[in-house]
Amino acid sequence: MEWNLLDECKDARRIGIGGHIRPDGDCVGACLSMCMYLKKCLPQAQVKVFLEKPADIFHEIKGFEEIDSEFGEEAPFDVFFVLDCGEDRLGNARKYFPAAKKRINIDHHVTNTGCGDLNYIRPEVGSTCELVYDLIDCEKLDRELAMALYIGIIHDTGIFQYSNTTPATMEKGAKLIGYGFDFPRLIQETFYQKTYIQSNIMGRALLESIRFLDGRCIVSCMDRKTMQFYDAEPEDLDGIVNQLRNIKGIDCAIFMYQTDVLEYKVSLRTSEKVNAAEVAAFFGGGGHVRAAGCTMRGTFHDCVNNLAVHIEKQLENA
Ligand code: AMP
Ligand code: MN
Ligand code: MN
Fold it and tell me: Is residue 245 in contact with ligand 1, taking CB distance under 6 Å?
């Protein structure tokens, strides 16, 4: 490591932290744990987290209530952190990026080339929270900080299940639960638990799914009308694509939901036979080898046909 986190921030008065749009557990965990750590180590600094309003399931993480989702005018930050994404997916927080005196990008997306003056991009690591863990002084860990990091790690590794889980991930998980938070309840309430409506939507998405490419690929789509019928937000659709991926024989699962007229947010989950990041990157998105996403324009059928060309090519070469 060529730079030290606290050295880089030691003279800063105002520190900003931003993460990606539609923040997930890793993003919320990374932003709030970084905020807690910096406040603890640099009491003279003002530290502020800017994120689109995260799902309520994360409300127990310390600092959740202080997240700024208004994105008002701010004087230039001395240091601005971009966590779990690059500049392009900062959403409204992007406006603080150009004026910041020092920009630090910490991320694990293989498609991120590093947007900061200082970068710590490690695609081989399962979560940004793991990277934050690596960068902080473990002596400063406490129960709240540990819980925030743990939430990020479990969400991006599917509770230590996905192939991005390493012995080091497990060791960090072990150290973190040593701080004594109620991890079985956290896993249940932030990862597995669904509201009745969310379960209805999941059921509908599974029921309406279509297999193609000799049954190796599956797609399900939710249009705006259906989302309005259930009064569903994008966060209510989390987990659907993973459930599709669990179906026997599937090498590539696609879930898409309509974001505008002729526009869809697409999520991909794949087996080792398909590189999801490559497919998503072709359509201007990105992510990881087994989990990636993009936004596509066109009709549902156009989008699926365009995706199928790339997926089929990879399946043939596998
Ligand atoms: P999702 O399917 O939205 O859950 O995303 C799967 C993974 O790909 C997550 O790690 C996302 O952060 C990442 N991802 C999704 N959409 C994009 C995008 N447009 N650009 C880069 N990464 C993305
Ligand atoms: Mn994320
Ligand atoms: Mn992540």
Answer: no
The closest of 310, 20, 26 to 155, measured between CA atoms, is: 26
Nearest CA to ligand 1 atom 21: 286
Q: How far is the CA of 225 from the centre of ligand 3 (A)?
A: 30
In tens, the pLDDT along 75-119 reads 999 999 999 999 999 999 999 999 999 999 999 999 999 999 999
Q: Does the beta carbon of 292 lie inside 6 Å of ligand 1?
A: yes
Which residues touch 72 (CB under 8 Å, ≥6 apart)? none
Question: How far from 58 is each of 26, 27, 111, 152, CA to CA, in Å?
Answer: 11, 11, 27, 10
Helix (H) or strand (E) holding 213: none
Q: Considering the chain, what percentage of its residues have pLDDT values greater than 70?
A: 100
Taking CA atoms only, the protein residue closest to ligand 1 atom 18 is: 285
Q: Hey, which residues does 4 pair with through a beta bridge?
A: none
**pTM across the whole model:** 0.95
Residue with CA closest to ligand 1 atom 2: 267
pLDDT of residue 74: 98
For tokens 């399900």, name the residue: 220
Contact 308, 212 (CB under 8 A): yes
Pocket flag, ligand 1, residue 267 (CB < 6 Å): yes
pLDDT of 1 over the 90 cut: no
Ligand 1 and 127: CB distance under 6 A: no
* 16 contacts 82 by C-beta, under 8 angstroms: no
- 57-84 pLDDT, tens digit per residue, is 999 999 999 999 999 999 999 999 999 9
Percentage of the chain exceeding pLDDT 90? 99
Q: How far apart are CA 28 and CA 30, in angstroms?
A: 6
- Please enumerate in sequence order all residues whose Cβ is within 8 A of that of 267, keeping only pairs 6 or more positions apart, or say none: 241, 254, 255, 256, 291, 292, 293
CA of 42 to the centre of ligand 1 (A): 32
